[in-house]
């Protein structure tokens, strides 16, 4: 058996930057998925679904920046409804977060307390 050459170890700062980028990507993905699912629940139907329970329609999206513990997330895609009634609540709170709030709001409020 021939011994394979070992790969060079990354510098600590480079490794931390890589981990931070991975964490930011994961947080962005989770937030965008949760907000889309919250809009589904708000409207009463998934994208493209015909349902008698439907209470509205989607109307594209807009972007927002968000500061989280892994770092600043720029241009997070936030879905919106045609009537403009669906809102992602901001994470400013002086009391604890309860289960009455949407999951996206709970995450944002938790992250704000960590900063």
Summarize this entry quickly.
With 115 residues, the protein is α+β, with helices and mostly antiparallel strands. Helices cover 38% and strands 19% of the residues.
* Strand order, largest beta sheet: 1-2
Individual helix count = 2
Instruction: Identify the overall geometry.
Output: elongated
Order of helices and strands: HEEH
- Using the CA coordinates, give the radius of gyration: 19 Å
Report the strand count: 2
Distance between the termini: 52 Å
Strand content: 15-25%
- Main sheet: strands, sense, barrel: 2 strands, antiparallel
Helix content: 25-40%
What does this entry look like structurally?
By secondary structure, the protein is an alpha+beta fold. It has a domain at about 10-45 and about 55-85. About 40% of the residues lie in helices and about 20% in strands. The protein contains 2 helices and 2 strands; from the N terminus they run αββα. The chain has helices at about 10-45, 105-115; strands at about 60-70, 70-80. It is elongated.
Task: Give a quick set of tags describing it.
115 residues; alpha+beta; two-stranded antiparallel ribbon; disordered C terminus
Q: Layout of helices and strands, plus pairs?
A:
Elements: H1 12-43, E1 58-68, E2 71-81, H2 103-114
């Amino acid at each position: 058996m021939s011994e394979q050459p070992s790969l060079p170890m990354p510098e600590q700062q480079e490794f931390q930057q890589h981990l931070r980028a991975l964490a930011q990507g994961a947080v962005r993905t989770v937030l965008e998925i949760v907000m889309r699912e919250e809009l589904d629940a708000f409207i009463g139907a998934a994208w493209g679904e015909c349902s008698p329970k439907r209470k509205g329609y989607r109307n594209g999206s807009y972007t927002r920046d968000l500061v989280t513990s892994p770092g600043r997330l720029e241009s997070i895609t936030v879905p919106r409804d045609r009537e403009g009634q669906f809102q992602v609540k901001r994470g400013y709170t002086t009391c604890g977060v309860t289960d009455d709030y949407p999951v996206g709001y709970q995450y944002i409020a938790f992250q704000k307390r960590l900063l």
